[in-house]
Design goal:
alpha+beta; 7-stranded mixed β-sheet; two-stranded antiparallel ribbon; 4 helices
Length: 188
């Protein structure tokens, strides 16, 4: 059974916990951690997106954040982010490998998993590409494939092609802002 910290309007744990299915069914706010893997290629910024397994209960077969997951009750956000990165993409990273991009409310559509209508507070982290091509990322059934996308084109397409993408637009916008203010740290 997965347990989440219930959060307040600022994204801070309240000291209460809730089981995952209840949080989703009743729209109880909880936290997630998102890692966005970015690289520069041919003078453009690219973002690595994962295609969710067709067996997932939410957004099966759609492209999503590089790596993301719920923050378990009592866990630190960085701990959860690094665990998800390892589980989903086979990347062993340390907190020093990541840069904090910001926090973002993550509002989900009312039809998410039929009932869910709520807010997740997402910790957004940035990881410069560890220099792998997409064939070297591994997963254990959660991810069908990974693919590099042009960041700006993806941002434009995400709102128009929800049949292909389930990337949280608020998070993607925050990543774009982070890249604009820290662009010189992203290397080819």
């Amino acid at each position: 059974m997965e347990l989440f910290d219930i959060i307040d309007e600022n994204g801070n744990p309240t000291g209460k916990i809730v089981e995952r299915s209840i949080a989703h069914a009743e729209g109880i706010p909880h936290r997630t951690a998102h890692i966005w893997i970015i690289r520069r290629r041919n003078e453009k910024t690219e973002i690595l997106l994962q295609k969710r397994s067709r067996n997932k209960d939410s957004f099966p077969g759609k492209f999503d954040t590089s790596s993301a997951g719920h923050i378990q009750a009592g866990d630190e956000p960085m701990e959860s982010a690094l665990r998800e990165l390892k589980e989903e993409l086979g990347i062993h990273a340390e907190s020093a490998d990541l840069q904090f991009a910001g926090n973002s409310p993550y509002l989900l559509p009312e039809n998410f998993m039929e009932k869910y209508s709520g807010m997740k507070k997402s910790l957004l982290l940035y990881l410069r590409s560890p220099g792998r091509d997409r064939s070297s990322y591994t997963s254990k059934g959660e991810v069908e494939e990974v693919q590099w996308f042009d960041l700006e084109e993806t941002y434009q397409q995400c709102s128009q092609h929800r049949d292909k993408f389930c990337v949280p637009l608020g998070g993607l916008q925050l990543v774009r802002q982070f890249i604009k203010s820290n662009g010189n740290t992203i290397k080819e």
